[in-house]
Design brief:
Strand content: 5-15%
Order of helices and strands: HHHHHHHHEHEEHEE
Radius of gyration: 36 Å
Strand order of the largest sheet: 1-2-3-5-4
Number of strands: 5
Structural class: alpha+beta
Distance between the termini: 38 Å
Number of helices: 10
Helix content: 55-70%
Shape: elongated
Amino acid sequence: MHAGPGSGLQRARSFMMLATGLYRASHLVVGAVAVAQHQRGLVLSWVGFAVALGSSTAVFLTARARHWFTFWPPLIDLVLIGCVLPYVVYAGGADRPSMIAWAMLLGGSASAVCAVAYRGRTAVAGCVSALLVTHTGGYWVAGADVAVTAGHLNAVVSSAVLARVFWWYLRRQGTALDAATEQAIAAEAERARYAERMAHHRALHDTVLATLTAIATGRADPGAEAVRERCAREAAYLRRLVQQQAEGDAAPAVTEAVERAVRSVECLGLRVKAQYGAVPDIPGPVAEALGSAVTEALNNVLRHAGTGQAYVTVTGLGDGETDDEGQGAGGKEGRRGGVVVTVADRGIGFDPRTAGKGIGLRSSVVARMEEAGGAAEIDSAPGEGTCVVLRWPA
């Protein structure tokens, strides 16, 4: 299962990296105290401690950068710190069991790291076995009692077993949490799709079905001008609905807001040809601001353009990258980027430099888009129509 940032599995990994890191840090503290107090004159003890510190830093910094242990750093750490270090310290003059104990202690944290870094049981068993053999030989050379040797070997094995059990449990819980999250996302996506279908059903019931029923029952004359105009508006709505369904990836928050604006002016007699492209997901408040700006732009066409036709296009803006770390609703990858909405007409146009600064395009469209973090551009000239371009982000 994918372990993206913030997932349950990645949180389990982060905890195990922290736990094994603290375990190693506690052993390093013991080693620093032992060398500083009792082996200050032994050069190889200082060298061994420096190597242990460097190896530990490499293991855990690499794990943090990669979000988990990789293959080689734990293995190198096992060989250097777990298997070789005790003999180096012994060769440097620490020739009693109590003097090499701090070096032996580091083998416990080395076994814990290997127990969580490697998935295969054979690999973990091989790492622990290497520690048991080398540490038995180290204590035998130093003349340790059997009880001391047995106690230490038990600590090495216990460290590996406990780390392995903790990691198994946390991985299982993290995986279960991720599965539950995916199920919740899928259920929410299904509820959203159902709500969208119901909204379309209600809209069709209140428009197309109502018109067809009125014509079929004789309550409306299909030849009447008003009925023909209503049929044309509803046919345009059906075409837009089919286009949105065919696109499949248009964001409901944007398309629904613009669609409400289009239908609001169609009811007043303005014919609107709307086209919807691949639109990215954007915040709800931004979609509402875009919808309100489109409404005002279409109202201006209706009031001032001197034409009964307007054109609206909604397209995505951006690099088209996908979000690598998560899935969008319904299992699709969510696109990042912005959106561009264009409202155009072929009316009489106007001169933007001499137009008044009332509560029209400049206040209700430009200001609204700026408040939402977007921008609006107005391109018009007398006799050449008007084009309003809404962009988010600016």
